[in-house]
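Lecture notes, structural biology module. Today: joint structure prediction for complexes of two components.
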Amino acid sequence: MKKMLSLAGLVVMSVLLYLAVFSVVHRPLVVGEIQRNLDFKLAYAKTLPSPKIVILAGSNGRYSHRCEMLTQATGLPCVNASIGVGIGLDFQLDQWRPLLKRGDVVYMPLEYSQYRFSFAEMHGGLQNALMVHSQRDYLLSLDARRIAAAYGSFDLPFLIHGLGEMALERKGFWRRSSTESLTPQGDEKGHTAEAGKAYEGFLLEATKGGNIGLSKVPDTSDTLTLLEPFLTQMRSDGVTVVGGLPTLPSSVNVDRADTERLRSFYSGQGQQFLELANRSLYPLSCFFDTLSHLNEPCQVAHTAALGGALAQLLASGASPKEGRGLGP
Amino acid sequence: MLFNSVAFLFVFLPCTLLGFFLAARLSQRLALAWLTLASLFFYGWWNPVWLPLLLASIACNLGLGRWIGRLPQPGVAGPWWRSRKAALTMAIAANLALLIHYKYGGFLLSNVSAVMGVVSDSANHELPLGISFFTFTQIAFLVDVYQRRADDFDPLRYGLFVTYFPHLIAGPLLHHREMMPQFARDDIFRFNASRLADGSVVFILGLFKKTVLADAFGRYASAGFGAAGAHELTFYEAWGAALSYTLQLYFDFSGYSDMAIGLAMMIGVTLPLNFYSPYKARNITEFWRRWHMTLSRFLRDYLYIPLGGNRQGALRQRVNLMITMLLGGLWHGAGWTFVIWGGLHGLYLVIHQGWRSLASGLPVMASPLWTIPAATLSWSLTFLAVVIGWVFFRAQDLPTAFSVLSGMAGMHGALLPDQLIGFMPWLEHVADGAGKVAFLADGTVMGAVEMFTMIGLGMGLVLFAPVMGAMKPLTRYLLVVPCAALALQRVVYGTSSEFLYFQF
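The predicted structure, tokenised, for the full assembly:
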């Protein structure tokens, strides 16, 4: 029995060591940058009067949209709240919900993949580390399972990344995308077509194989389950949510049925859906470093088209209507 | 059920052990029956459809074994079909027929159809889990009966010998004679906390190898091998994928073997060693003495030696080696990539045999100055040969394998993320820069850093860490501290991935 007790003690020590190590080891260049992005954008949003526009999506939101142009088109101040697709959508909604006031417009060109996420995927994102290291109060407001999952989200790759990033940060490693590469409104800037040349080979490789299923939207998913009460709540709070399409290369086959499913979902909750004539599809030469990030000239062109359409939609008196509920 | 799943660790294993020791208080046979039932439940959890097949295979082989055991000694007069050899041949043929039907039927049909130029419906059907393992285990039993080396036909112990859950699905391949006496020993029925703790430690370390190391390497390997069919891999992408798979397979199989040994230890049963630091081998013969040792033993005892082994001259020995390795390759899977992998290893062994004869006469080989360079060179050559073999083993098809190999040969250039080159400028002598290298781990700069760090860590472990059996018990216990929480984290918050050897 002595050996069993020793083993139990060693396992407890292992757990304590795990918690101790990961309370120190963090990822300043990725997770830390997400928190800095979030602080930057939230701080700017707090300065804005309502009504305002909030762009909320994954990274396509900040690379492919330019707030100042939406402001020019609509006359409303704007903040680009988008950070990345790998950050749980529920976490992001919780961060922004307190700042959404009557009359505000939330434009949501979520990446298609986000609609397919399960709760497990949503809760397995980088926000776990972020909550443990930077947002403990918010973390402790969640249920016990989520708290345990956040503390249990650290693994060996995180340790390697953490130690590497901490060393790189000390040596002044330059990160391509950071708060310094953002406009005051939170859009990505400086991702010129010239700078995008370094990624040409990568983008060509990424388009091989047809990208089948890239734009698939499911009938039901945990993301849709999460969004449904959010849209309803926003409707009753007088906030207009406008669903939109993320930017993708025109070589990707976006099924009409998928976009109609999205339209039906947003309008079913009494909200709006905006689809540009080109369905947000652009030539491959428009993309910067991934198949969802437009380069700066195309970011401007896309936002110009979007701004006009959004202004028209808002001018037509678009506001939340009584929803039909989810499903056929 | 997977050893690395929550259901196994927190429900199945405690219930099985508790039930076994409680039942043993009433009767040893009841305890054996409980363990057999638990093993069948473990097997059926995956897909209960195959349970009747497993049970039928056990019943038939036990019956055949008894029959062979009762037949007269060779030389005693009687009809041919009453001879032990004929009975053994028929029994082995029946087992192989079962294996061919389930495992090789589609492969054979598709190849025959291709030769005849007709379209066949040879879609891959689901393979009964562990069929290669339980069939080979029982073929070995039949041969042992034939050779009068097995004479315990107790149905309960035999059933447990075949189905015993630590080895049922992915080995080690057991001999009847090394297991049956253990199930008859009194001490395994007595709860022993010290044994349970020792077994748990080995299990935890195996779990760490599988969930923390093998699964991480699996992600990097999948990025390269998944893309190689449609894309041209560059040098570092191809080497990253090949080395990652080399390490994934090692830690996956070694981790499984440790877990199996640890589980058996918990009730005082000893399973044979299946791994002995194979990547430390300095020649291919040594590699096969260290890798999947129980399969090597099986192939040697039941194929290579019956074929004549090395008793009929050098040429015949080389033919026997090739046949053994080709069939060994085919045992792993019904596909040409496995045949080529087996053939390559056969060729390696033949070359090594030839080199050994040649080198023994060279005076330089005896020189002490030659010892260190020779060791380095022979290890490098052996490791390179093994990695090239694994490319065929892992690739979905031959074009994919050749695509990875051409990348490894540098035929599509050498790219690294330009940020990495900017940070370490000396890298520009060995690579061109690109914003992103698509199939180098997850395509990100830090993903590439993670992969290279993990490969370094993995190589360090496989080359310098002592084998589990050679570690002092205190060292093993102390290793629990860095390993247990990380392994538990993967079990609870990761996704349970299958062991690679399940597919064989």
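Point to remember: The mean pLDDT of chain B is 90.
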